[in-house]
Amino acid sequence: MKAGYKAFLSFIAAAFAVVAAGAAVKTVELGHMPGGELRRAVAKAVAEKAPADTLVIRLLAEQYDFHPADAEHRQLYISNHDQDNPKAVGILIENARNVILDGGNARLLFNGRMLPVALLNSSGCQLRGFSIDFPNPHISQIIVESNDTAAGIITYRPEPWVEWEVRDSAFVVKGEGWEHTPLTAIPFEEHTGRVLYRSGDINVGVKGVTRVSPTSLSAPWKDPRLLPGTRLAMRTYRRPAPGIFLDADTATTIENVLVHYAEGMGLLAQNCRDIDIRHSGVCRSSYDDPRFFTTQADATHFSSCSGNVAVTDCLFEGMMDDAINVHGTYLKITEVIDSATISARYMHRQTYGFPWGAPGDTVRLVSSSTMDYLAAPSTINTIRPLSPESRDFLITLSSPLPDSLLRYISSPSSLPAVGIENLTRTPSVLFARNTVRHNRARGALFSSPRPTICEDNLFDHTSGAAILLCGDCNGWYESGPCRDVTIRRNTFLNALTTPYQFTEAVISIYPVIPDLDHKRAPFHSGVTISGNRFITFGTPLLYAKSAASLRFLDNTVETNTAYPPYHPATTPPISLIACPDPEIQEPE
Q1: CA 22 → CA 16, 19, 99, 542, distances in Å?
Q2: How far is it, in rounded angstroms, from Cα 307 to Cα 451?
Q3: CA distance readout (Å), 227 to 8, 154, 205, 222, 561
Q4: CA nearest 240: which of 391, 66, 76, 70?
Q5: Rounded to whole angstroms, how far apart are CA atoms 35 and 64?
Q6: Beta strands 478-479 and 324-329: pairing type?
Q7: Which one, 158, 251, 358, 484, has the greatest CB density within 10 A?
Q8: HEC sequence for 15-47
């Protein structure tokens, strides 16, 4: 048994023991009340808790309703989300220790534009036994009634829960404090709930529309794939807030928590240490739920976390992006101040405003063009934000900068593209016994140098690659290289039905390296793919670029005719580019 796996087992068994010896357990029971009153009651119970005690907050009602007008409005900068502030928070637990929010299977229903649950700067806390939903979500589902491709006219019917109108010949959807005209749509098959084959993000008629009955409208559009009965999740690209937000927490457990909808990620954790998510999910409310979609973006997303991240026995379906994404964030160096001091910036418009590092953190410099390291690891001596929004930082390192950067002290305008990576804020990952199905984009993304285990999962009709190992200091700025990844005993069922970004194969190892010809050393290493079952309609199995010591062993393949292959017939099942010392066993 690998040492990393033993560490995961001990982590799950012991790391979340909430009740210390001699500590008391206090229980506060909260019955039916408006959401705003529940928020205040939870905050009061946490504030009055004795530091050494464990507090259990137990919800007794079946349903609680929340509205923005009675929310806690907070300035919160959330990784990989729109940085529009303040956020309207439904339930906020902050600066807490050993607090258990036990929902008793309550339904938490949110209206308008809200961040349902936030756990901030807390340790040893648990969220369990509740669901999060929005009765009128910002993604608006319609049903195709007829599609006259000869005339270029489509007729569709918004689902009953959608609030809509035709205004100036445009289809406008609206809710409590918001409205918009959708920009794009994801089509789902009527009887399977799967994303329509090779559909991707499509347009559909939302301009020049005519109301043809009290419940239906027609619009100019021509797409023969949209058969009557097709459901379309119509949306914008906004992602203001996740369903659950974890920030600067330690030893957090989430159990039996379901997110049925959020206008961002299902869960976003940033700068947290040790997270255990089990028997939870981002999923439809039931097998026959008429809503085919769930979240606007990823189901779970971990940004600059550390310790251990475990996600086990969960269901992720209908998301508009990935089931899990684990990464750090590269800052881009904007100026060399002196021999050991730089200024550096968060580059992506949805990622800034929160701490990037602390004194003592281990960091490393990387060339954006080749993704090669420029010097040995160093540590942060001092770091401070240069603006109130913490987009730029002044960082002093413990060791001198390399000569290749020192020459630009007096000429910052010619500074080459160089990033800085925080190696301390990287976690070990266990993603096991989960089901990922019927979602847009990819299945699982891992970008951590620490041990990562992805095992015994079912990837069922993911639109993009089932698993992606990336690394990008040019666009998304999500770090970094993988050093110890085990992908084993997973089942991949008809993955890669739509060509999204990084979709060369079911498993894609695809770091963004603009100048691969001049790269000195492989970006990834130590990836073992073994004992997996590929059930496919002719899709390539593995694409790998710049990965050393890659092993592909004891995997099996079963082909079917579920869809016509869209990769050229000459595409090999396994493609390796700049991958030294591979050990490849052709699948059975």
Answers
A1: 17, 8, 16, 53
A2: 11
A3: 47, 10, 15, 11, 21
A4: 76
A5: 6
A6: antiparallel
A7: 251
A8: CCCCCCCCCCEEEEEECCCCHHHHHHHHHHHHH
φ, ψ at 442 (rounded to 5°): -100, 180
Maximum separation of any 2 CA atoms in the chain, in Å: 76
Cα separation, 498 vs 255, in Å, equals: 32
Rounded to whole angstroms, the Cα distance separating 192 from 177 reads 34
- In this predicted structure, what is the pLDDT of residue 198? 94
* Nearest partner of 336 among 404, 258, 398, judged by Cα: 404
Residue with token string 């390539």? 540
Within 10 angstroms of residue 350's Cβ, the number of other Cβ atoms is 16
Element housing 530 (H / E)? strand 527-530
List helix spans (H) across 254-346: none
Please state the length of the chain: 588
How far apart are the two ends of the chain, measured CA to CA in Å? 26
Query: What pTM was computed for the model?
Result: 0.95
Which residues in the chain show pLDDT less than 50? 1, 3-5, 7-20
Secondary element (H or E) of residue 158? strand 153-158
In terms of Cα–Cα distance, which of 301, 255, 249, 297 is closest to 276?
Answer: 255
Indicate the residue type of 85.
N
d(CA 71, CA 66): 8
CB atoms within 10 A of CB 572: 12
Torsion angle defined by CA atoms of residues 262, 266, 271 and 275, in that order, rounded to the nearest 10 degrees = 150
CB 544 within 8 A of CB 580: no
Q: In the block, which residue shows the tokens 């020049």?
A: 208
CB-side exposure of 18: number of CA atoms within 13 Å? Answer: 22
Residue type at 417? Answer: A
Q: Is 230 exposed, middle or buried (0-12, 13-18, 19+ CB in 10 A)?
A: buried
In the block, which residue shows the tokens 């079917």? 560
Question: Alpha-carbon distance 527 to 425, whole Å?
Answer: 21
> In 450-526, at which residue ranges do the beta strands (DSSP E only) sit?
452-455, 458-460, 467-469, 478-479, 485-488, 491-493, 507-509, 524-525
Q: Taking Cα atoms as reference points, which of 1, 8, 5, 6 lies closest to residue 307?
A: 8
Q: Show the tokens assigned to 498.
A: 């739509």
Find residue 428's DSSP bridge partners: 308
Do residues 311 and 324 lie in contact, with contact meaning Cβ atoms separated by under 8 Å? Answer: yes
φ, ψ for residue 482, nearest 5 deg: -95, 140
Q: How many helices (H) and strands (E) does the chain have?
A: 3, 51
- Amino acid making up residue 51: P
Dist. CA 314–CA 434, nearest whole Å: 5
Tokens encoding 17: 């023991």
pLDDT score of 413? 84
**Structural tokens at position 129:** 């036994």
The one-letter amino acid code at 290 reads: P
